[in-house]
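Checklist before submission:
- one chain only
- standard amino acids only
- sequence pasted in full

Submission:
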Amino acid sequence: MQQQWSDQELVEGILKGSPAHQIALYRQYNVPMYRILLRYAKDRAEAEDMMQDAFVRVYRDMAQFRGDGALGGWIRRIMINTALSHLRKQKDFLRDTGDFTPFENLFRTDEDTASNMDAESLMKLLQKLPTGYRTVFNLYAIEGFSHEEIAEQLNISIGTSKSQLYKAREFLKKILDKSYFEPQK
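Returned file contents:
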């Protein structure tokens, strides 16, 4: 039977270099964190690479965990930062489009087909988005970051963040409309 430790015990064990505590932390958090990384990655292999790097950072930086919030939230932040770091290294990750004012009122707010999809189908749909669209969409629509925060995180303009979100939504709409009208196999 697997040993169950509190977050505090996990942190203390990892700080002491205990492999058993590292394994326990990984087992406790790997599934939810992998799901987060899948939203940023283009495929499972990229998500696995991101996760490996992120857990190395978690173990390495454990002394920085102050315990002010939940350990899972701290780990989640490292996962997202690791994903963004991986994505920034890709050529043509995002292109700055400058002023976004002409598009600001074009966001659709009507009910969409995505709200009726299961999680796996939605994940596959998100992975079809170009990297920049997918990243901004995740940060804004799922993680709840503002355009100002996204711009700062990704070193882009606020207009680029807004346009990438708009383009992501339009791209998703086209994919959904196309798949909605295709015959089911």
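Reviewer check: Residues 80 and 98 are 25 Å apart (CA to CA).
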